[in-house]
Structure formats: C-alpha cells, structure tokens
Design brief:
Layout lengths: L2 H12 L12 H5 L2 E3 L9 E5 L12 E4 L2 E4 L12 E5 L5 E10 L14 E8 L15 E6 L12 E3 L3 E5 L2 E2 L4 E2 L12 E8 L3 E6 L2 E11 L22 E6 L4 E10 L6
Antiparallel strand pairs: 1-17, 2-5, 3-4, 4-17, 5-16, 6-13, 6-17, 7-8, 7-16, 8-9, 9-12, 10-11, 10-15, 13-14, 14-15
C-alpha cells in the first residue's frame, strides 16, 4: 500500500473508538462527569434577581444570550441606581468543580460605584434568590471575585474571595476582611480568562485561574456584613454553608461568560 494511503487510513482510524463509531463532540467530557450549565442558546435553566426588582424580572434585558455567550449589558439602563443583579442556575450544589470563561468588555455603566470598574464575580453557596427581598443588594453567599487590569502596569489580581453576609477561615483564622486577594496575575483588556472553582461542601474551597491555584480557604459561614436589605430569618450567623446556588454577577461593568460547566464531586459528608 502506498505511504499516503496508509497515512489516510491511520487518520480515519484515529477518529474512531474501539467500536468503530466516531465519537461525538464533547463525549470525553460527558464520560468524565462534566455537565454544561449553559447550553449556549438560552437562559431557560437560569433565573434572575436584580436589586430593586422582584425575582424573575430581567430588568433592561441585563442578562442575555448572544453568539453562544451569556452577556451582561446595560444598554437599556439609565443611571445604574445600585441595580446589582445576579443570574442563578436553577438548582443548588454542594461538592463540585465549576469551570467557565469570562472577559470584560465595553464601558462601565453611568452611576455604577467606582469599585465595580472591570469587576464581576461568580457567587456560590448562595441563598435561594426566591428568599431575597426586593431591595436586597447582595445575596448571602461567597463570591469568587473577577477583576480586570487597568492597563497601567499595576497588579490587580483576579479570582479573589469576597463575603457578602458571610465569613471564611483563611490561614487558620476567621478572616476579618470582606475580600481576600488571590495570587493571580493581572489580565488586561478584553482577553478571555479561564476560571475554576473547586468546592467541597463547607470544607476546602479552591480558586483556579488559567490553570494556576491562586487561593484556598475553608469553613464558609453565615456572618459578617456588606449584604443589606435581607430578611433576618435567612441570616443565621454562625451557620456553616455546605451548599447553595451558583450565580453570575452584574455590578455595572459589561462582561461576557461562556463554556460554563460543572462536575459533581463525591460528598464526603454522607
């Protein structure tokens, strides 16, 4: 057989598994337990809660799907008016590995606080948004904070931890700080950045940026301040958080998310 014919046959066989059937796209990830949280087409598995609005009201079409991405936009807003929002996946999780990609785009919305410039996040272990009051700004939750660089050469890490209405143990003590900086690099401009979050109930939590572990902490607990306007019966200080909802954050800075996937891990509490 000619050499070129052999190479062609070998290439065809490489596309087949041992049954002789071509593997569908994503089969390997599915086999390894990964599930898409975002299907790339619609938000049917997600629901919205925006400050000053009732749950389910997607004010200004803040959260939308375009070109296979979840886009967080403010082109139908006037003044921002502290309309902090979150897009929640429909079910809670406890032990899991989450991965996603994000990028900052466009300009900060008029009236948004200065600290929200190139700032977004992924909330987890969040209270059910259906328990949030109309004028509650932040869900009681933990946040994997996502920041973009200002292009000025100064360090501005991403993959940090913030704690609205919660506390965490960091380096052996309950952290006195609302946010803990990670050890990540700074990512300027509109580049895509890969984030990962490994959550083990109320035990160890790990933040990963572009493949590097950048932060670890443990024992997420209800407590602390920052969240406002909540129903007091849902802020039971001292209660360990072992599960909750996952949400994408809207703070006044346009941002895109894509390739949002989750892999559930063994629950060692059982």
């Amino acid at each position: 057989m000619k050499k070129t014919s052999c190479l062609f046959l070998f290439s065809c066989l490489a596309l087949l598994d041992f049954t002789g059937v071509k593997k569908p796209a994503g089969a390997s990830d599915a086999h390894n337990g990964w599930k898409k949280l975002f299907n790339g087409h619609d938000l049917n598995d997600w629901f919205v809660k925006i400050n000053h609005h009732l749950v389910g009201e997607n004010f200004g079409n803040t959260f939308r799907v375009e070109n296979g991405m979840i886009k967080i936009s403010y082109d139908q807003y006037g003044d921002f008016n502290d309309q902090f929002g979150h897009l929640y996946y429909k079910t809670p999780f406890s032990y899991y590995h989450l991965r996603f990609e994000y990028r900052f785009v466009g300009k900060q919305q008029k009236g948004a606080p200065d600290y929200t410039l190139l700032n977004s996040g992924v909330m987890f272990h969040s209270q059910d948004p259906r328990t949030m009051l109309k004028d509650q700004d932040w869900p009681i939750s933990i946040e994997m904070q996502l920041l973009g660089g200002f292009g000025d050469g100064k360090l501005r890490p991403t993959g940090n931890m913030c704690s609205p209405g919660t506390d965490v143990v960091y380096k052996g003590i309950i952290s006195p700080d609302h946010c803990i900086s990670s050890s990540s690099k700074t990512y300027d401009g509109e580049q895509w950045v890969k984030g990962e979050l490994i959550v083990q109930g109320n035990k160890l939590i790990t933040h990963i940026i572009n493949g590097d572990t950048v932060l670890q902490y443990s024992r997420p607990t209800v407590g602390g301040g920052v969240a406002h306007g909540y129903d007091p019966k849902y802020k039971q200080d001292g209660k360990l958080l072992s599960a909750g909802f996952i949400a994408l954050q809207s703070e006044g800075q346009p941002v895109d998310f894509r390739n949002i996937e989750i892999k559930q891990l063994p629950n060692t509490d059982r």
